[in-house]
Amino acid sequence: MVLLGLAFIALNTAIAYAAVGSKVISIVTGVAFCLAFMIVVRLLHRAMWLSLLSFIPGLFVLVGSVELAPDLALENRGVRQQVTVVDAEVAGKRHTFTLEGDDGPLDEPLIYRGSAPDYEIGDTLTVLTDPNGVIALKEADRVDSTAKLGSLVLGGSGWTFIALVAGWRGHVRRREGRFDTLVI
């Protein structure tokens, strides 16, 4: 069961990297893998509480695998550019900043979702752009695949712990001759 969980993590991360332009695909497959892991825990070890508990590390697995791919792709193939903020538009909590580099204005704006952006007109910052145009540009300081990998490892560790607890629980119940389907 531990290997199954690790295979789900690796497979969803690979799917997210292959479909880096569309997060929907990796989110759908990630949710399916998380639900499959929950069902396997429930069917093999007859412990609904462990199955529901596996949802928490499943969230870390889902977020880590989906968010790791764009940051990793930008780190590997992204082009680092020094730009200046020349214009800003605000629509609710969506801030759109027009950027200008050494070669003129960039085709893609920097988008910030929130109430208090860190950028003002005239600020100079470093961004990473995707030469393929698949991934939205990001400020270079905000691209951190190590943090996403940490989330993925935390989720995988949680699934491993749950698999070990479920296996121990099943072993103890079989040794004591209790084969009923108690929830607890």
TrEMBL record:
Where does the chain cross the membrane? 26-44, 49-69, 149-168
Alphabetic keyword roster: Membrane, Transmembrane, Transmembrane helix
Name it.
Answer: Uncharacterized protein
